[in-house]
From TrEMBL:
Primary localization: endoplasmic reticulum
Keywords, sorted A to Z: Endoplasmic reticulum, FAD, Flavoprotein, Membrane, Microsome, Monooxygenase, NADP, Oxidoreductase, Transmembrane, Transmembrane helix
Record family assignment: Belongs to the FMO family.
Protein name per its UniProtKB record: Flavin-containing monooxygenase
Signal peptide annotation: none
EC code(s) of this entry: 1.-.-.-
Statement: the UniProt record of this protein carries the keyword Ligase: no
Named cofactor requirement(s): FAD
Enzyme class: oxidoreductase
Annotated PANTHER family: DIMETHYLANILINE MONOOXYGENASE (PTHR23023)
InterPro entries: FAD/NAD-bd_sf, Flavin_mOase, Flavin_mOase-like, Flavin_mOase_3, FMO-like
Length: 254
C-alpha cells in the first residue's frame, strides 16, 4: 500500500496534487470545506469566511496557453483570457476526465494538523477534520496545504487617521462583487494592482468620478501584445527568467 497523503483544498493546486500523488503510487485524500471544486475560481455572490472571493467580472491575466495542465489543453473555442466561469468549466472537466472527484471529501473542514507522538520515527501526522458537527482525527504519512493565499484581506484602517468619521463605505476588494452600488458616487480606489485596475475600470462606467491612488509608479500593460499574441507568451520566457534571477534587481527592473 502507498503512503497516505492529506490534501487541504481542492482548487487548481489541490487537484494537481491529487493527480501527482496518484502518479507516484500514493493514496491521496483531499478535504474541501465547501461543496464544490474550484477554490479561488468558484464564484459566489457574497464573500464567505475562510474562502477566497472574486468579483463577478474577473478574467484571467494569464493566457490559456500558459496556464493549462500539460496534457489537458483548453478547448479551441475558449478565449485566450477567460472569464472565471470558463476557467471553472475547465477545472470541472479536468477533474472528471482524470477521475479525481472520488478522492475529495466535500463539506469537510480541516481544523488541526499535528505531529504524532512518534513523528521522529514514523513522520506521521494527526489531521483533525470536522464534518456534520462531528470531529475526527485521521493519521496520514504526509500533508499538502493547498488552501491558497487570497483568503485574508489586508485592510490597514489604522493607517488612515479620521477614517472613523468618514460617512461613506470603506471596504476591501475581497467584498466587491459588481459596480451597481456605486452608481453616481465618487470613488477612491487604493492600489494599482490587477484588482485595483479592474475595479476602477468597472466603476468608471457607473460612478460619477473614480480616482486611483498608488504609492508607486507602474507599467500598465495590455493583455494582448503585438500581432495578437498574449503578453505572457511574449515575455514569460526561460531567457527572461534567467536574466531576472542572475542580474541585480535594479538592472533587471531597468
Amino acid at each position: 500500500m502507498g503512503k497516505r497523503v492529506a490534501i487541504v483544498g481542492d482548487g487548481v493546486s489541490g487537484l494537481a496534487s491529487i493527480r501527482s500523488c496518484l502518479e507516484e503510487g500514493l493514496e491521496p485524500t483531499c478535504f474541501e470545506k465547501s461543496d464544490d471544486i474550484g477554490g479561488l475560481w468558484k464564484f459566489s455572490d457574497h464573500a464567505e469566511e475562510g474562502r477566497a472571493s472574486i468579483y463577478q467580472s474577473v478574467f484571467t491575466n494569464s493566457s490559456k496557453e500558459m496556464m493549462c495542465f500539460p496534457d489537458f489543453p483548453y478547448p479551441d473555442d475558449f478565449p485566450n483570457f477567460m472569464h472565471n466561469s470558463k476557467l471553472q468549466e475547465y477545472i470541472t472537466a479536468f477533474s472528471k476526465e482524470k477521475k479525481l472527484l472520488k478522492y475529495i471529501q466535500f463539506k469537510t473542514l480541516v481544523s488541526g494538523i499535528n505531529k504524532r507522538p512518534d513523528f521522529s520515527v514514523t513522520g506521521q501526522w494527526d489531521v483533525t477534520i470536522e464534518r456534520d458537527g462531528k470531529k475526527e482525527s485521521v493519521v496520514f504519512d504526509a500533508v499538502l496545504i493547498c488552501s491558497g493565499h487570497h483568503v485574508y484581506p489586508n485592510l490597514p484602517k489604522e493607517s488612515f487617521p479620521g477614517l472613523k468619521l468618514f460617512k461613506g463605505k470603506c471596504f476591501h476588494s475581497r467584498e466587491y462583487k459588481e459596480p451597481g452600488i456605486f452608481k453616481g458616487k465618487r470613488v477612491l480606489v487604493i492600489g494599482l494592482g490587477n484588482s485595483g485596475c479592474d475595479i476602477a475600470t468597472e466603476f468608471s462606467h457607473t460612478a460619477e468620478q473614480v480616482i486611483i491612488s498608488s504609492r508607486s509608479g507602474s507599467w500598465v500593460m495590455s493583455r494582448v501584445w503585438d500581432d495578437g499574441y498574449p503578453w505572457d507568451m511574449v515575455f514569460v520566457t526561460r531567457f527572461e527568467s534567467f536574466l531576472k534571477n542572475n542580474l541585480p534587481t535594479a538592472t533587471s527592473d531597468w
